[in-house]
Amino acid sequence: MAELVMRDVSRIFRSGRGVRNLSLTVEEGEFFVVLGPSGVGKSTLLRLIAGLDTPDNGEIEIGGRSVTHRARPDHTVAMVFQNLALYPHMSAYENIAFPLKMMGLGRREIEERVRRTAALAGLEIDLNRRPSQLSGGERQRVALARALVREPRLILMDEPLSQVDVQLRSVLRVELKEFQRRTRRTIVYVTHDHDSAFVLGDRISVMHEGRIAQIGSPEEVYRRPANLFVARFLGHPPMNLLRCQVAESGRGLWVNDVRLELDPPDGESGELVLGIRPQDLSVQPEFGAVKLEVKVESLEYLGARYLVRARLGNQALLVELPRSLQPGQIAHLYARADRFHFFDATSGERIGQTHDKASTVTKG
Amino acid sequence: MAELVMRDVSRIFRSGRGVRNLSLTVEEGEFFVVLGPSGVGKSTLLRLIAGLDTPDNGEIEIGGRSVTHRARPDHTVAMVFQNLALYPHMSAYENIAFPLKMMGLGRREIEERVRRTAALAGLEIDLNRRPSQLSGGERQRVALARALVREPRLILMDEPLSQVDVQLRSVLRVELKEFQRRTRRTIVYVTHDHDSAFVLGDRISVMHEGRIAQIGSPEEVYRRPANLFVARFLGHPPMNLLRCQVAESGRGLWVNDVRLELDPPDGESGELVLGIRPQDLSVQPEFGAVKLEVKVESLEYLGARYLVRARLGNQALLVELPRSLQPGQIAHLYARADRFHFFDATSGERIGQTHDKASTVTKG
Amino acid sequence: MSQRFKLLEICRRALSAFAVVTAVVPIYLLIKQAFSVELDSFAWPPRWIPHHLTLEHLHKVTSTGELRESLIRSAEVATVAACTATLLGTMLAYAMTRDLRARRWGLAALTASRLLPMIAVALPLATVLIRVGLYDTPSGLGLALVHAAIALPVAAILLLGAFAKIPLELEDAAFLDGASQLTILLRIYLPQLKQALAAAFVLSFLSSWDEFGFGLLLQPTNRTLPPLIYYYAVFGDVGAASALALVSTAPVLIVLVALRHILIRQPKPPAF
Amino acid sequence: MSQRFKLLEICRRALSAFAVVTAVVPIYLLIKQAFSVELDSFAWPPRWIPHHLTLEHLHKVTSTGELRESLIRSAEVATVAACTATLLGTMLAYAMTRDLRARRWGLAALTASRLLPMIAVALPLATVLIRVGLYDTPSGLGLALVHAAIALPVAAILLLGAFAKIPLELEDAAFLDGASQLTILLRIYLPQLKQALAAAFVLSFLSSWDEFGFGLLLQPTNRTLPPLIYYYAVFGDVGAASALALVSTAPVLIVLVALRHILIRQPKPPAF
Fold first, then answer.
1. pLDDT digits over C23-61, tens only?
2. pLDDT surpassing 70 at residue B230
């Protein structure tokens, strides 16, 4: 059943930022990630769902009931904030108990539910300690427990992992994913961090200027980006995007004056944008059938790999290779034909079957 | 000729932080990178070289002259600060001209040198604009030009690229490296960013708690880390480090109760720490002769690759693979014997020829 | 290094000199005048160490009923003023915290009200107080309200700083947790504002306790302490005035000693 | 939303009410009293719109030499006080910027000196000024120095905030570029402090211009403006006093109008 439905929701601020005509559906038990650069309207979206803000237009439904114009939020939604927003003057116990106290529950019931929820969130600490006496990971778990304790239908998370260091973040990420797998809670998680989105999300919604640029599984958005924005935004180093002309015959492409033996999608002609990820190119001929002749310009040593800056025609091309090449050298690179992406040069939309989920390619 | 020599230099603050018994030599025309986590004494080191601080002990020589106890810095050293430290109330021109004005040069000579240096630093802007009217990259170049204009023997840089965004950083990095290749200036560059260190440095000095943990070329420190600190600090995800026992025969190793057909360095016995990078493991048998049987625990999709969390014996092992594995599955991984690192379990020092530069392996 | 920071050294010495001239010397002289016979105080060249000590002034001052009366009145006025200023200050600071426009205009109004010449405001205020029957009352309620208005800007700005340290998300979180706005103010904000509230109260109290001009104008017969000291001094009894002034510094000294840790541990400079 | 922020709305209204009561009403009454005949001012119930207007008070006030004399004296005293406070404030703020220990003790000393009761300090100060021959002089130099000391804490804290916005690396960079410490102060710091220096000067000037208590005590015959107004009021000529008070608000109004943009555009709350 759809847990959260947003229909044509808009909330636009005077700065012009906000959320525009946004529609989405989150299924029960789904880990739904909203991914986008900062300032794109992700937090606005979350505040609208939470009831901290009211949409200018559109409808929001949670668990089948409209919550668009609720006077105050009910117990169906809980939120974990970016800075966690733990009450600094209360102990961990009091923090977790606060929502229950506001519900007017009795002391014994509160105690029992706090203990149970703390265990569920993986808290094995003395709950009498204040947030300032806890480690980053412990604070994270207290915030999670406080969000869980009222057993909401929907948990909203606003980049709660952004303030812990990289090492701890990857540990907490795995822990959070495990927690969600185990308890099947519905979670809407907002982030600008690709890694978090890929690791956590059952589905990812990529946002761009207040709108949704693409929704899909991590594999879908990475392997079949729906438009140039998603293609550029996901992946590091970013996807190479080359302007090219379809050959007059309709077979083969011209990148400036270099011909590629790669067939464009049927029926296309004129100018296209061709995309290929730096990791999808290799110097080994057995890697793929499409051959690219490039001029190596410079290379950077990255430890496990080399990042090669090269030129195809007069356009820049980044390649990630396990071995070194000589600057100035002419090199032959190989790629599988199905690893190339085509985009319309004017609209930026993907050309080819974007939404065909059945065709998800397995890498090998 | 050695441009900068530091001999047994110490500068310790009340907090216990600082630089301890540090010796190093930077050659003329070298791009020397000091790499380490924050708070490790990198900036202190730079301030000592600049003459902004005075060592408690030891000697500093620049261009063969002792500068340990200079009253004020001469024209041999210039510095680019982390926040660039451009004078906000002066135009780009006045910023670059300021050091020359302080030297008391005439107006015409100043003008000529400012123009020349601005061109050298790649500045193609209206020099009458203020820093606040410039882009991040332009500000970077103004700061570089101000450091260059007095033609110092030595340019010190304190993470000047840390405040621009990732995309611009990689562009400016390449530009800076190109500039140094062209002009053969001696540069000492301090950073906590592995990528910058690897891309820029002719040699990298890895710092740990005020001391130098290892000095060498990027390839050397990455492929032959001198101790556990360097092994852990360089590379992402970090190197797997496994406690193991040398088999009684002196051939083969035990990781808990799992036997590896991998010979420890001659003459070693008892407990060792075995290191292997996540990227040096593969599921393809032709990848290497050493076979590891692991249990897959979970995996994270990273776009171009999967990060697999597995167990060898009862120790955690991270593997980066281009394809997916099933959680719970028993998998066989392969690695080349020369990709394993051995460290002394108590001292943390590398076992085997650390400083044998001739043996630098080429990856394939 | 010492070469480099010569100018800094000069400035640091100016700082010490300022502290000595504006605080140490007057306090010493005050104590000396309160306990020495008249001649000593005006001796030339000045005598730093008095030859003749006396308790006469202190005795004279404590034996009159006028002192007790105005001591109690000053304390009452200062307490009412401090309570009012702290309460109103909290409300203003809260409004300014959540609302950017309120903050802008609020800060402008608070600053502007501090710039108004006291004497220009005092005359019409006296008129208003006469009309509403609060001029020169034995309780000094009118003066207390005026003192509250004077102390309000500092109290509000101090509390604004304390509010600003509390992330707005805390209020959002409490709202989602089901707390009403009053609950949020009482159970989320106030516990974190304890120190700032104490500071606002103490500063408001002292500013009222020390205030001279409005006291002189608005309570000409039912005097508070500072005008009383002024009258003693003007009528020539400098010794008695000094003894009284010394008594009036008591709460200040208590506060300074009590707050010495907070006063000294203040790493960040204000952003004003 | 409106449901959620009911308490906020109450606070916002308190803010508006405060602005009206402390600034708008007194200023209106002052103007009214300065231009209306005596009876009107004390009429009961209060008349908000005067029936009889007159220029008599203003004429009376401008026709005496006493006014001109004390106007000039007030201006001189305020100028000397503002210059001194700004100069010393810059030195102190610079010392506190570079030196953490100086900052701690400096802020403590500045705060403590502001807490001292004015009346307690005034008596020994009068003694000192009498001894050094600066008591009740026609130029008012003694009073000017006292006013400078009073204004110094605010000036120093204001400048400290401005110094704090200038990164320390700028000084290091200029040092490496070969600048002396004086060059650094004059060519690196001062150009970036212009606004803060102007603000410190203006605030010091106004605080001296408006100061009443010390003026009353230290310049009993060679009066500055506020005590003169007080004497007019005490001797029963409220109309003349009001007219004079109105004149005395002139520089404040000029400053408020000139600085209205800076006063209102202040997005960040102070961190104090």
1. 777 778 888 888 887 655 555 555 667 777 788 888 877
2. yes
- C63-99 in b/e form (b: 16+ CB < 10 A) is eeeebeebbebbbbbbbbbbebbbbbbbbbbbbbbbb
Q: CB of B342 within 8 Å of any CB in chain A?
A: no
- The DSSP output letter for B68 is T
> Which of D54, D79, D96 is the last residue before a domain boundary?
D54
Q: Which of B26, B48, B46, B23 is nearest to B36 (CA)?
A: B46
Instruction: Return the domain boundaries, chain B.
Output: 2-228, 238-347
Instruction: Quote the domain boundaries for residue D26.
Output: 2-54
The DSSP symbol for B349 reads B
CATH architecture of B2-228: 3-Layer(aba) Sandwich (3.40)
What residues have CB less than 8 Å from B323, skipping those under 6 apart? A362, A363, A364, B283, B306
**E-assigned strand segments in C55-178:** none
pTM: 0.81
Whether residue D20 sits in one domain with residue D130:
no
How close is the nearest chain C Cα to the Cα of D138, in Å? 20
Question: Which residues of chain C make contact with D267, given a CB cutoff of 8 A?
Answer: 100, 103-104
- CB-count exposure of residue B80 (10 Å: 0-12, 13-18, 19+): buried
Which residue of B lies nearest to C4 if distances are taken between CA atoms? B72
Token pair of B184, please? 């053969």
Q: Residue C66: what are its φ and ψ, rounded to 5°?
A: -55, -40
CATH number at residue D205: 1.10.3720.10
- Give me D73's structure tokens: 């004296």
Architecture of the structural domain at A238-347: Beta Barrel (2.40)
Residues 3-42 of C with CB under 8 A from B: 3-4
Residue B218 pLDDT greater than 90, yes or no = yes
Domain count within chain D: 2
Same domain, C46 and C173: no
* Binary contact (B103, D178; C-beta < 8 A): yes
Per-10-residue mean pLDDT for chain C, 272 residues long? 70 78 77 74 60 79 81 94 94 84 79 77 83 90 92 91 92 92 91 91 92 91 91 81 85 79 51 32
Q: ipTM for the complex? A: 0.78
The crossing angle, in degrees rounded to 10, of helices B107-120 and B92-103 is 130
Checking if the pLDDT of B342 tops 70, the result is yes
C232 lies within 8 A of chain D by CB: no
DSSP category for residue C43: -
pLDDT at residue A361 in the model: 38
